[in-house]
Structure formats: structure tokens, C-alpha cells
Amino acid sequence: KKASRSKKDAGAPKRALSAYMFFSQDWRERIKQENPQASFGEVGRLLGAKWSSLSDSEKKPYQDMAERDKQRAETDKAAY
């Protein structure tokens, strides 16, 4: 038997996104345009490789966005 999952509350606040997720949202379309035949998994691998090749200073804007989103999530969770 499968264990049943409890239903998620639709009104619950969204979790904070990581720096990589902000980067992924920003770059996914560009990667897909450069590689139109790439599958979803291949696009993910290309995004991962691009993220790994970025310097700390290039990652900083995404890390700042993640930090702000983390604070937003904590505030939303406290208010919930």
C-alpha cells in the first residue's frame, strides 16, 4: 500500500527560490533558443553547466534575489 500524502494548503505561502532557480528562470529561454532541438533534460544540463561556469560576481545578482525571496518567504510564513 502507498502511504497517503496530506493535501497541501492552497493558501499556504510559497517557498523561497534558490539563486540557481532565479538564474534558471532568467536563462532557460536563451538556452532553448540556442539549442531548439534540446530536450527538457538537456536544457537542464546546459543550465547547470552554465551556472557552474559563472564567477561569484556573476552569481551575486541571483544570490541577492534569493536572499530577498528568503526574507519574503519568512515574512509570509510568519503572517500565515
UniProtKB/TrEMBL annotation:
CDD domains cross-referenced by the UniProt entry: HMG-box_NHP6-like
Basic and acidic residues: bias regions: 56-80
Pfam family, one: HMG_box
Leader peptide range in chain numbering: none
Keyword vocabulary terms for this entry: DNA-binding, Nucleus
Gene Ontology molecular function, alphabetical: DNA binding
InterPro entries: HMG_box_dom (IPR009071), HMG_box_dom_sf (IPR036910), HMGB (IPR050342)
UniProt DNA-binding residue ranges: 13-80
SMART domains membership: HMG
Annotated spans, Disordered: 54-80
SUPFAM superfamilies for this protein: HMG-box
Cellular component GO terms, alphabetical: nucleus
Domain called HMG box: residue spans: 13-80
Entry's family note: Belongs to the NHP6 family.
Summary of subunit composition and partner proteins: Weakly associates with the stable SPT16-POB3 heterodimer to form the FACT complex.
Protein name: High mobility group box
Biological source species: Acaromyces ingoldii
